[in-house]
Every structure is written in C-alpha cells, then in structure tokens.
C-alpha cells in the first residue's frame, strides 16, 4: 500500500491534468447556452383564383365582355409572381428570399403555394411583383417558376415575359388573335392589395391562407380613359410597344384583390 505522503504527488499531478479538461467542458457548455436562439418561424399559403369580372376564368369555352361591350375569349393566361413581402402594423417587414412563382390558368396546381420560414407574428399587409427583378430578368434559370420551358421567356431578347394572355375577339377583325406578352425592363409592377381589417396570423403549427382574386379583365380597363384597351386597334402587344407599360399599370391598379384570409 502507498502511504498518504506517497499519494500526494500523484493526486496533485492528476488534478493539474483534469482541471483544464473540466474548464473546457464548462466553457463549452457556457458557449452553447449563450448561442443566439434560432428565430421561431411558420408558414402561410397563397391561394389565387383567376376570374373575369365576377365570373370564374374558363379557358376557350367562355365569352366575356368588357365594360365597353367588346367581347373576348381567353385561351392562355399565365404570369410570374415574385418578391413577396409581408408587413406588420408597426412597419416592420419580412421579404421572402428567392421566391419566383409561375401562375398558369391551364394548371390549377399553380394557383396554390406555401411559403415557409416566415417569422412568427400578425401581418397586416402584403406586396409582390408581377414580373422579375432586373437581377434575374436575364438569367439562365432551368427550374421552378423561372424555368425557360414555362413559355415565359423571350430567347431573342434574353428576358422574361412577365404576363402572357391570348384569346380571340370579334372586334379585332378577321384572322387576328389577341396576343398580349407584357414584359421588358419598364413593365414589372409592385402590387399591394389591401388587407382591410384582415390579419394574417403566422403561428407555430398553423398555416393561414390568403385567398386572392386575379381579374383578367383588369388588363384592358382603367379609370383613366386613355389606358383602356380597344381590341379593334390594340390586339397584339409585346416588349417595346408603348402599350406594354400601360397594361402593366392596368394590372397593378385593378387585377389583384384579397377576398379573405383563413386563419386556420
């Protein structure tokens, strides 16, 4: 057996070895406890319902009338929605990163999408861009809403079509179709449909939904008489046409309205 005197040197040496290890464990725990907490987030959904006036949009089979009495059908209607932003009553905002969404009337699955990783809270406002921001407008994207195969990209000018509508109208004259390809650097528009008294409550475990109407007829109508589209003279619009920014103004002013919000 070792005497107490013989054990002391060994005990001191062991203590000197163990002390840094113990301090390291304590320091590590302290750093872990002091790390910034991960912000709590939730999700919300956008549900879009294309309409013409007050009637549901039906491709090819339904005839619609403008306020001036001119009639038309719709064979194609699609657009790009991006740069979604939510705001609170105190003015703070959350901008959804890298969100580019294709809305296509020929595919009702595109009417509904969920946006995740949104900071929790009650939001009182929504804004978004119809079109694509300059940083992405000339990109070579091959997936998602910006996929070139979505029929919303001009190869000849290497830029996106922000909104495309096609159809027919007897007012265009024989052998003339309605073709509206709204795009170009001056045609993107920020839209902020009013919430009214509604609130979007983003909470843990809940996915509230904004139900928004998309009125195709608003492309052609305006409270400004000079901005109203006459199919007899204006039936085909592309980038570079003076009517492209006019129709972009029309859609920003009247195409989108929020019907209701499901709190879920």
Number of strands: 17
Q: Percent range for helical residues?
A: 10-25%
Beta-strand content bin? 35-45%
- What is the averaged pLDDT score? 87
Assembly status? single chain
Order of helices and strands: HEEEEEEEEEHEEEEEEEHE
Number of helices in the DSSP assignment: 3
Our measurement of the CA-to-CA distance between the termini, rounded to an integer number of angstroms, reads 75 Å
**Poorly predicted sequence stretches spanning 5 or more consecutive residues:** 1-16
- Class of secondary structure makeup: alpha+beta
Radius of gyration: 29 Å
Shape, per Cα inertia axes:
globular
Largest sheet: 10 strands, mixed
Question: How is the topology of this model organized?
Answer:
Elements: H1 4-34, E1 41-52, E2 55-56, E3 64-65, E4 71-87, E5 93-95, E6 100-104, E7 112-119, E8 121-123, E9 125-130, H2 134-137, E10 153-154, E11 159-168, E12 178-183, E13 189-191, E14 200-202, E15 209-215, E16 236-237, H3 243-254, E17 256-262
Parallel strand pairs: 1-15, 12-16
Antiparallel strand pairs: 1-2, 1-7, 3-4, 4-5, 4-6, 4-9, 4-11, 8-14, 9-13, 10-11, 11-12, 15-17
Short recap of the structure:
With 264 residues, this protein is of the alpha+beta class.
Molecular structure report:
With 264 residues, the protein is α+β, with helices and mostly antiparallel strands. Helix content is 18%, strand content 37%. It is globular and about 70 Å long. A hairpin with a 5-residue loop joins strand 3 (64-65) and strand 4 (71-87). It starts with a helix and ends with a strand.
């Amino acid at each position: 057996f070792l005497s107490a005197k013989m054990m002391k040197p060994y005990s001191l040496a062991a203590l000197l070895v163990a002390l840094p290890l113990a301090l390291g464990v304590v320091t590590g725990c302290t750093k872990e406890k002091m790390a910034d907490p991960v912000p709590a987030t939730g999700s919300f959904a956008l549900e879009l319902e294309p309409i013409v006036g007050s009637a549901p949009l039906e491709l090819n089979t339904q005839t619609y009338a403008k306020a001036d009495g001119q009639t038309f059908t719709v064979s194609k209607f699609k657009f790009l929605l991006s740069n979604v932003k939510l705001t609170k009553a105190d003015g703070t905002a959350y901008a959804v990163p890298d969100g580019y969404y294709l809305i296509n009337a020929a595919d009702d699955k595109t009417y509904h999408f969920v946006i995740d990783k949104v900071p929790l809270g009650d939001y009182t406002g929504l804004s978004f861009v119809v079109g694509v921001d300059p940083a992405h407008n000339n990109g070579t994207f091959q997936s998602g809403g910006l996929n070139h195969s979505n029929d919303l990209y001009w190869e000849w000018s290497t830029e996106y079509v922000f909104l495309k509508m096609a159809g027919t109208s007897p007012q265009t004259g024989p052998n003339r179709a309605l073709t509206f390809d709204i795009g170009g650097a001056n045609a993107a528009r920020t839209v902020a449909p009013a919430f009214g008294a509604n609130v979007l409550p983003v909470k843990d475990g809940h996915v509230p939904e904004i139900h928004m109407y998309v009125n195709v007829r608003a492309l052609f109508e305006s409270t400004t008489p000079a901005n109203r589209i006459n199919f007899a003279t204006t039936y085909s619009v592309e980038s570079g046409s003076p009517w492209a920014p006019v129709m972009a103004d029309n859609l920003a002013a009247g195409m989108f309205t929020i019907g209701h919000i499901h709190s879920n």
